[in-house]
Structure to design on (142 residues):
């Protein structure tokens, strides 16, 4: 079973955007998509539609909140994402999830944002900015 508190400690000191960009830099578009589909296949069938609804919920986050969200310390945001995920799935869909499923869904969200970076240069630039990569790094970096 995944130790969610231990994962939060492990993520501490890194921004949410840094983890997203790690996946962008380590996986091309097709690898990222395959990994996303693989994670989705790990989930129970009854979670398929609710998780898509959850992804839409996070994607619909207002722009000012997105900037704060992606530049925030992942050690603080990870437990928040897990709590929002659990509450969203229980309240909107009547589904309870295990810690392992919560972690899989978290990874699915991260890969979804990485996929968005691959698909849209503006999204990738905004993610780099949220990660603290300066203008020249965004201009000439990966």
């Amino acid at each position: 079973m995944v130790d969610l508190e231990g994962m939060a400690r492990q993520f501490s000191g890194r921004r949410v955007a840094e983890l997203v960009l790690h996946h962008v830099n380590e996986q091309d578009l097709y690898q990222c998509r395959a990994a996303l589909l693989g994670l989705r296949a790990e989930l129970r069938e009854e979670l398929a539609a609710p998780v898509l609804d959850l992804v839409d919920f996070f994607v619909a986050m207002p722009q000012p909140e997105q900037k704060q969200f992606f530049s925030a310390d992942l050690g603080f945001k990870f437990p928040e994402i897990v709590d929002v995920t659990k509450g969203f799935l229980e309240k909107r869909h009547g589904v309870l999830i295990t810690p392992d499923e919560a972690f899989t869904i978290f990874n699915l969200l991260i890969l979804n944002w990485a996929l968005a970076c691959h698909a849209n240069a503006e999204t990738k630039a905004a993610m780099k900015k949220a990660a603290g990569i300066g203008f020249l790094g965004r201009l000439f970096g990966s």
Observations:
- The chain has one domain: 4-140.
